[in-house]
Amino acid sequence: MWYDRASLWGRRLTRAFGAGDTRTIALENVSLEIFPGEFVLLMGPSGSGKSTLLAVLSGLLRPDSGQVTSLGHGIWQMSDREREAFRLRHCGFIFQGYNLFPALTARQQLEMVLRWGEAINGRDARRRANEMLGMLGMWKKADLRPAQLSGGEKQRVAIGRALIKEPDFCFADEPTSALDWAHGEQVIELLRNVARERSAAVLVVAHDARIVPYADRVLHLDDGHLVEQERARRAELWSVS
Amino acid sequence: MSYPLAMLWHDRQRYVPGVLAVGFSALLIALQCGLLLGLFSITSIPVDHTGADIWVGAPEVLSVDLGQRIPDSFLLRVLDNPNVQAAELYSQGFAYWGKPSGGSELCILIGSRLESNSMGAIEELTPELRERLTEPGSIVVDAGELDRLGIKGVGDVAEITGRRVRVVGLVHGLKSLAGPYVFCSLGTAQPLLHLLPDQTTYVLARCRRPELAGTVVQRLQHYPDMSAFTQNDFSLRTRLHWLLKTKAGVALGCAAALGLLVGAVVTSQTLYAATVASLREYAVLQALGIPRWRMAAAVLSQSFWVGVIGVALALPAVYLMSHGADSLGAKVLLPFWLTSSAAAITMIMAMTSGLAALRSLRLVEPAMLLR
Question: What single string gives the DSSP state of each residue in B134-158?
């Protein structure tokens, strides 16, 4: 079955910060796998290592030990340039802050990723940006700058920026924490649809328990250890396949 | 509009110090060089205010005022060239001026033909003055140099190298750096400069067409015992010699370097601060796998536009200030090559500032976006 072949594997991942007496272990012997089309929620108290795990799995932060295999490639065995190219081809990121360039319109934020990342010509980049903004319900606001958008709209643009490349993985760190629940729910539904419709593996780090019903699986991290996995929607995934 | 330019325009207030620093540097370089060129244009007055296409003098002559004695037979060599229409002798040299009240002053004595078609007579010498100068021992000086020469005006008598001379007229606007110019006939100049009858300082020539001057000079340069220049080249050579001899070039270089340094530091810091302000946005792009060189190119593009805008603002200011300086009596020369060089140097400075600002991109770290 398609979901039996994990697209992302983490094996015995350990990561610590600091040295000597100040050394803090953020992750210890964490192993997990994530499947294509799966919407995985990573929960846990502050400082439990959620963001560190997301960074290690996504190729942003090198683990002290352990391996990450992504689409069959050991991403921490790659050179920096190869890993950058891998992220460009396969990974989308959404962060808690929207981190949009204040000078650029919603459309330009998306076009920039295509033109700078994949050297796509201006016309095609504009067409794809318009399609993505349309999908996000933002086409009327394509020419507005971040200062003219609400928080939810800005996060949608950030999601569009992450998804415009049609990535195999989408990593989101607290994507709803700055939004009210109405907007937050829209964002979560968008991400779940991305997993379903594009068969992308979506890993979301969040505190908000209201997101749990939307997740295919919920991972709990505590003090750097993976303590629990809930397979809430596994049965539903079977039926979709 | 490109993304870097859009960012620059959106945050234009942030970039104002950089733009002003670039503009200030361009202004400083262009005006300083223009002032110096204006100042040293005085040294080439004998070349610039006369009508010869070609100047022939002693080998390796450095400047018009440093002419050495050459045989007047060189005149025949010059006339031998089919592209030369006419040639004539010209005498110039330093001499001691004895003031009527005592004391002496070094002056630059210039002896030339005085006919209306003369190449060596400066254009300020009117037909009436030329007529008066035909009288042996008569001279013309600049009205602004009377005090320096210790005389009051026309009719006064003084001595040059112990020989009596009489002032028969005055010209205006021909003040000199090294010593006052004293104009006279070839016949008057010869004994005052201790020239033998078969000696001169320069041979001047006029070509059948002015554009042939370069070709004629090339042929004349084959003679090892003399040197030949077009009018423009000799004028430039004279100015450059004075620029280097007086070390004014060094002072100019230091001042310009200081201006450039200040401009570079301010511009670099402006670009650095602007990039640091967008670190989180650049970090997202890096997380998404956008190559770092793309962001570096964006910073360099911004430095290019800061340079272009700064130079564009500076150039009109340069011309306005040069007019202002002119009205105050300070001559500012702004040939195209000077303004374009100032613009080019400033653009290089702006781009170098962009390179220095690239260090800010080292701070871009995608992991910092994860909390």
Answer: TSTTEEEEEGGGHHHHT--STT-EE
